[in-house]
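Structure in, sequence out. Go:
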């Protein structure tokens, strides 16, 4: 695609009404209503709390791609990117015409509107929809499976977000984006369906290495037939899991959103122009698997009353407050750090007053309590 040579062409198509981490049905309803005629908008069902679930279908081609976002309500980055992709597809150009002539895309922008409103992973019944593929105990799961059966996709894109703890293997590179071709069986067999997914992932990775070198990971492929991706892959549909991760200092996930946009466009254009034969298996396994090496903050070189030095690992909890996501720090690891790197490092080696920095992170009482306990144990 010629536009890939432009560094920031995403800015032309960004849906500016969608910003930040808290994206709900209320945020996207007006965008659904203004889609042009070439986009077929349907209400395909309702959630537990009777919120509508929609699909957007665009294109007239024989190759059919089904994608869904916010299966987990607190994973909103890919929803923002999906509307950026729609803005791109709604513009007439050589790139979009090739995609829409060769492909038909069915997009479910928000599968779990109740979870999105509450900013929770689960739905209103407390069920993880990505563990409900077999029993289909929830209305949202029934909707997705029905659309899958009716649409009969050639490819599925399962769009998710991942936590800030993920790294590229055991290195100090954060996992900004990661991908997975789900397994079809416990043996994690390399089937033709998986190989086709791998080829698509490799093409996205090749493009992304020019933008975020050494920051693309491969998600663990442990088999769980209750997961939607594993189920659809076992049905014979090449399935790609997208995981939107943490770009440095990008807790609102706007830079990550841009990269997901580029990845989706790369994938659908590659499908539109090529016969996918599964010819990149080795290159797929060259992508490093995700590790879990990161804290949000590491407080280094704290000292006890006995002048012994130690570190504290701090992780943010994402909490919905007054329509905004608040990042509340809590101490995850004390004494021994399980992970090695921090997105932010605060070194107390040259600092005389520990409490000053604690106060800035709302951690003073917790850390002081920890120090008290630590000193008590140490005595």
């Amino acid at each position: 695609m010629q536009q890939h040579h432009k560094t920031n062409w995403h800015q032309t198509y960004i849906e500016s009404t969608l910003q930040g981490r808290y994206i709900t049905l209320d945020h996207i309803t007006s965008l659904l209503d203004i889609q042009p005629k070439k986009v077929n908008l349907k209400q395909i069902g309702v959630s537990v709390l009777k919120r509508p679930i929609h699909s957007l279908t665009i294109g007239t081609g024989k190759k059919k791609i089904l994608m869904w976002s916010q299966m987990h309500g607190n994973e909103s980055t890919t929803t923002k990117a999906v509307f950026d992709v729609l803005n791109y597809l709604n513009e007439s150009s050589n790139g979009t015409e090739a995609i829409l002539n060769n492909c038909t895309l069915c997009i479910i922008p928000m599968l779990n509107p109740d979870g999105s409103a509450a900013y929770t992973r689960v739905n209103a019944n407390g069920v993880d929809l990505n563990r409900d593929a077999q029993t289909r105990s929830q209305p949202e799961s029934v909707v997705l499976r029905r659309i899958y059966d009716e649409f009969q996709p050639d490819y599925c894109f399962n769009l998710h977000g991942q936590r800030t703890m993920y790294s590229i293997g055991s290195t100090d590179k954060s996992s900004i984006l990661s991908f997975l071709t789900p397994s079809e069986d416990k043996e994690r067999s390399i089937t033709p369906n998986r190989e086709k997914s791998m080829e698509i992932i490799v093409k996205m990775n090749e493009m992304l290495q020019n933008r975020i070198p050494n920051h693309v990971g491969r998600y663990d492929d442990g088999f769980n037939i209750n997961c939607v991706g594993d189920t659809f892959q076992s049905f014979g549909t090449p399935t790609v899991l997208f995981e939107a991760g943490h770009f440095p200092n990008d807790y609102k996930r706007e830079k990550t959103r841009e990269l997901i946009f580029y990845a989706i466009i790369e994938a659908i254009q590659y499908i539109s122009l090529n016969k996918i034969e599964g010819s990149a298996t080795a290159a797929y396994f060259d992508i490093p698997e995700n590790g879990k090496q990161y804290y949000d903050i590491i407080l280094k070189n704290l000292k006890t009353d006995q002048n012994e030095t130690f570190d504290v690992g701090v992780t943010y909890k994402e909490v919905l407050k007054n329509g905004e996501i608040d990042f509340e720090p809590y101490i995850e690891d004390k004494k021994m750090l399980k992970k090695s790197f921090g997105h932010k490092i605060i070194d107390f080696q040259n600092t005389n007053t520990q409490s000053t920095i604690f106060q800035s992170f709302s951690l003073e009482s917790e850390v002081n309590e920890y120090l008290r306990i630590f000193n008590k144990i140490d005595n």
